[in-house]
Every structure is written in C-alpha cells, then in structure tokens.
Amino acid sequence: MKMTPTLNFSGACREAIAMYEKAFGGKITCLITYRQANDPAYMHLLNETQKDYIYHAELALGDQRIIMSDHVDLPLGVCYSNFLTMMCDTKEEVQRAYAVMQEGSKTIYPMEATPYSSCRVVFVDRFGIRWGIMTEQTER
C-alpha cells in the first residue's frame, strides 16, 4: 500500500505541475485535459476554457508520485494544517527548489538551520499549497 499526495487547483494545474517538475527534478508522466477525458460526469459543467483544464496529471519524483488536477465543482483555498514536506540530501538542493518556487509565495518559516535539519524553509506557494523543503540531517 502507498499513500499518494493529491493536489487540486482551480485552473492553474498545468502551471503548477511544470513548476514542481522543475523545482524537484521530476517528470510529468500523465497530463489529460477534461476535453481529452470526455467524462460525461463533468463535461456538462464546463465552459470552453475549463474543458482545457487538467482532468488528471501525475508527476513522478523518483519512485514516488504526486497526482494533480483542476477542479471546477469545489471552491478551493489555502490549507495551513496540511502540507507536503520534501526531503532533500543537501542544503543546495533545498535552496534550488525554493528558488524555483519562491516567486509569489508566502514564507511561514524562513530558510534556516534547525536542530533536525541543516536547511529548512516552510511556505505557501503561489497556488495556495503549503510546502516544507528540508534536509533530513544537520551535517550537510
């Protein structure tokens, strides 16, 4: 059994998955629009622009993945209680990922060393997703 994080957006999924792919060195393995899926449960709800929103997408990060999509039937907002933590091997990896994701973000905890990490930053990205990016140790 595996737990797979799933992120929902309101029309910005394509932009978000491209940013996460760049930030974390991932690979987009699936990208299906509502128009391509042609799912009768949704098609009648969509205007022409929304038909090109993302119905289902997957981003591979090593042997893990994140599922993503755009939703048109639910109001979405920032959730501070749940967030994704990305564990990096080095401080430089944390810095590179954050540099890609920093624009338009809101910092919660600035990049710094902690008793459990040589480099940690916590923020809400421009899409309303809360992230923690950190090293797993204090040596590097």
CATH class of the largest domain: Alpha Beta
Instruction: Round the mean pLDDT to the nearest integer and report it.
Output: 94
Class per helix and strand makeup: alpha/beta
Please tally the β strands and state the result: 8
What profile does the largest beta sheet have?
4 strands, mixed
State the end-to-end distance.
32 Å
In CATH, what is the homologous superfamily of the largest domain? 2,3-Dihydroxybiphenyl 1,2-Dioxygenase, domain 1
The total of helices stands at: 4
Main sheet: strand order:
1-4-3-2
CATH architecture of the largest domain: Roll
CATH topology type of the largest domain:
2,3-Dihydroxybiphenyl 1,2-Dioxygenase, domain 1
H/E element string? EHEHHEEEHEEE
Low-confidence stretches: none
Beta-strand percentage range: 35-45%
Instruction: Give the fraction of residues assigned to helices.
Output: 10-25%
What value does the Rg take, in angstroms? 16 Å
Number of domains: 2
Shape by Cα distribution = elongated
